Amino acid sequence: xxxxxxxxxxxxxxxxxxxxxxxxxxxxxxxxxxxxxxxxxxxxxxxxxxxxxxxxxxxxxxxxxxxxxxxxxxxxxxxxxxxxxxxxxxxxxxxxxxxxxxxxxxxxxxxxxxxxxxxxxxxxxxxxxxxxxxxxxxxxxxxxxxxxxxxxxxxxxxxxxxxxxxxxxxxxxxxxxxxxxxxxxxxxxxxxxxxxxxxxxxxxxxxxxxxxxxxxxxxxxxxxxxxxxxxxxxxxxxxxxxxxxxxxxxxxxxxxxxxxxxxxxxxxxxxxxxxxxxxxxxxxxxxxxxxxxxxxxxxxxxxxxxxxxxxxxxxxxxxxxxxxxxxxxxxxxxxxxxxxxxxxxxxxxxxxxxxxxxxxxxxxxxxxxxxxxxxxxxxxxxxxxxxxxxxxxxxxxxxxxxxxxxxxxxxxxxxxxxxxx
Length: 421
Prior knowledge:
Its cofactor is FAD. This is Ferredoxin reductase. Keywords: FAD, Flavoprotein, Oxidoreductase. InterPro entries: FAD-oxidoreductase/Apoptosis, FAD/NAD-bd_sf, FAD/NAD-binding_dom, FAD/NAD-linked_Rdtase_dimer_sf, Reductase_C. By secondary structure, the chain is of the alpha/beta class. It has 3 domains: 2-108 and 243-313, CATH 3.50.50.60; 111-238, FAD/NAD(P)-binding domain, CATH 3.50.50.60; 332-420, CATH 3.30.390.30. It is 26% helix and 27% strand. The protein is built from 11 helices and 26 strands. Strand 11, helix 6 and strand 12 form a beta-alpha-beta unit. Helix 1 (8-19) runs parallel beside helix 8. The longest helix is centred in the last third of the chain and has 15 residues, at 299-313. The model has no long low-confidence stretch (mean pLDDT 95).
């Protein structure tokens, strides 16, 4: 078994292979120098905890690979897959044979040409080394400008503001999380961010940017916005999304989705090349409900797709993937989501959406024809778990009963399920 990539999906794949009884050779080829590590903490505890290091983020301890007899090849790059010979070709000229190959190549931060990667005042956050560079650059008096008001951008805004930095966020859309969250929540998050001291520039774009040479008295970075504002920053963070790593797939002739940029896979992770599978941020599959190609960037999706692909590689019938779930921590709130927002949803609220509360707690349920399709919980993870079966089974609900805070969510879920039987 050859696994190309050494991120979350790869780490799940090797563990799944051994736990399902595979005793043969497993090779993992990864371009980074580090063992596989968790990426969600990079924008949070990795920056905020002075003692946090890469070793604390490892998904598996170092001795796991030795005990599980995993051939780990770090700082190596696969350039092409030869499907006719079942062979992977490496940048250094090595050739690795395989019976089955899993592409778990992940992605890289989307870059802007005007903001060069590697400049000491320009930051992108995708790798542990990116996080360490940013961490060592920040101090309590830093002026930070973040381009991008998505999940990563707002996590970085929350963390850097908590560290004492003066933070501005530039978002081209008119709202935060425009593609991933209902407008009602986007407005609430904007209010909470502003209350925390973050300055938001929504519906704004950068007209011009200038980088000063190190050592000059002026701010290292100055930006002119199309709303007439001029911002000065010690550090500029670009957080505008991810580009899937599909170079090896394209060179090898695998089908890649023109819309999402991901490697096309079926519901078991198979690509267009025999015996080659893909999973995680680099993979695109068809949404069973909409019939559209969909690429999901999340911790849970990487784990689920890797598990499904490995079971299929082993000739087993994989269990269905879990209902999509995502979480983020920002501005002293744990935010969790089930499903995805789609057009035509009616949102029902439970609890008070007080942006100024010390610990706000509320739920939003997106329904269509009384059937819940999407749920969002702020500091209410236990309640979200109770609602999960309703979404997974498509059980109709009573919107008025859901909004009744005097009825515990667990009881609401039980009554709703019983009424549907």
